[in-house]
Amino acid sequence: MKASLRGTIHPVSEGQWWFCLKHMRVEPDQGCPNKDRMGPYATEQEAAGALQRAAERNKAWDEQDQDDDD
Fold this sequence. Notes:
Blueprint: E1 2-4, E2 7-9, E3 17-20, E4 25-27, E5 37-41, H1 44-48, H2 50-69
């Protein structure tokens, strides 16, 4: 850690990227409360694709539920 005139600088931990549902953007570990976010993800790109992956999983689960009903 390095000291600055404003205090201590804490590096962003690896694997701590989140997708903020309130602001619809990727955030590092320091950001909105976790109740408003999806994650954590290992990379910024993974966090950016969070909504798409959730939609794909929901669709697959819905299709599986329909197959189970048949």
